[in-house]
Amino acid sequence: MKIMKERNTILVLGVISIIILITVQVIIIRGVWQQKDEMFNLRYRVISQDALSRMNRQLSSDGFETVRFIISKKCEQILNDSTLIKGDSLPAIERKDLLKYVTLSLNTSEELTQYLSREFERRRFDKDFTPKIVINRFELINYDRSIPVYISPEFANRRQPRPSDTTRFGSQPRFRQRRPQHTSEILVMGGRYENNFYSIDFDYFIDFRDKQKVVLKETATSLALSIFSILVVVSLFMVTYRNLMEEKRLSNLKTDFINNMTHELKTPLSTITVAGKTLEMQQIITNEEKILETAKLIGKQSVHLNQLINMILEISMWERTQFQLDKKKVKIEEVMNDIVNSFKTGCNNCAALSEKYNLKGVSVDLDVVYFTTLINNLLSNAVKYSDKEPVINVEGFTEDNKVCIKVSDNGIGISKADQKHVFDKFYRASSGNIHKYKGLGLGLYYVKKIAEAHGGDVTVNSKPGKGSIFTVTLPY
Ligand code: ADP
């Protein structure tokens, strides 16, 4: 419960930190992206305006001379048509047609576009752009009166230019331009032009199709570094979290082990203490039978105590040194028979034990002493972890060049989650009931170590409430 709470707190804190990190990185990357985007715009704006002034100097033109002449002719023609102009206004349909004509004429004028394209190419810049002309205002001029044809809503809201604002195209615009509709549009020039027949305001934009790609390329290093740093932090967090949890688990196992060991050692020790006190009693000194019985009890408990201490010592020795096995070729069926029979007598027929071997005189390289401990641990667990009359089946057979020994019981079984850990050092599955079934959590660890030292393995298959099957495999 406590571990779960700690685990959740660490997890929540970690996830929050990662989210903060990702948010910060996203903000940084957006900033870098915007910066690169603005730099891109600035770069092309500067070059195009530079090109524009060069064009003005070299050709004394802004690239729209011809089209202005065509528009002027068209306007003159309309103004001369007395059927069209009614006072200070032009019919809506005529206004629409004229605007269409002017827009089309401006957009088909390629002089400036070609000049810019050549200029970009000369400087080894991207020349893959689309020009776009946006008319802000267009008026016909009939002597000193103006006849409005079109005014964009955006332009209408702006400050009306003073006469001094009138400039030649190609110079820096004197009043605020229309904002580009798309972020990919770059404003190259804008301004107003007036002659005797018309007055116009328009903006010339260039739009780079590959701009996103170029900006992405320029941002790639920062983006890659951000992703890399996020990945590093996430992996570090995962590794640290796993280690922390593992450490917590081991430390809890150790605490459990110390509690269990104290409990295990205390039982024989207190029996010996009580037996010693009994021997001191006057009425016992003369009773030979009682003395013998008490001495036997002391001897039995000392052996148990000794076994426990040896097991602990041996395991701590394995940690430091390699397993020393004294292997001999033995007939596995005979060894199994001996072990099971002495277990039966040792535990006073505590379980209904059946054996079935199909080993056809197979010999295995075994350290019989260790192997006996292995099988004994499995058998005693089968008896210990049983809530009814224990029924144990021991089977032996060969499979894929391996000897398999199966010990099945009808005991309390092991949950799926616990099955993953039962072979770990100090692990006790039913930690809630540690005092119901006594133990140190070392028996199966011992089993696994011995099996592995013989080049084999041990696995468990179990269903809670139904029983467990432990399978030991050994090469032969
Ligand atoms: P111990 O028996 O000293 O607790 P073991 O290493 O022998 O330690 O076993 C580890 C855990 O595996 C036990 O605490 C028990 O919960 C579970 N276990 C082992 N053998 C069986 C079995 N035959 N049936 C049910 N549970 C078992």
Descriptive notes:
- The strands form three sheets. Strands 6-8-9-11-10 form a five-stranded mixed beta sheet, with helices on one face. It has a four-stranded antiparallel beta sheet with strand order 2-1-4-3. A two-stranded antiparallel ribbon has the order 5-7.
- The protein has helices at 2-59, 65-80, 92-108, 111-122, 153-156, 211-280, 282-285, 288-320, 332-346, 368-384, 416-419, 443-453, and strands at residues 129-142, 145-151, 185-194, 198-208, 328-331, 352-358, 363-366, 391-399, 402-409, 457-463, 467-475.
- By secondary structure, the chain is of the alpha+beta class.
- Residues 162-177 have low confidence and may be disordered.
- The structure holds adenosine-5'-diphosphate.
Summarize the structure.
By secondary structure, the chain is an alpha+beta fold. It has helices at 2-59, 65-80, 92-108, 111-122, 153-156, 211-280, 282-285, 288-320, 332-346, 368-384, 416-419, 443-453, and strands at 129-142, 145-151, 185-194, 198-208, 328-331, 352-358, 363-366, 391-399, 402-409, 457-463, 467-475. It contains 12 helices and 11 strands.
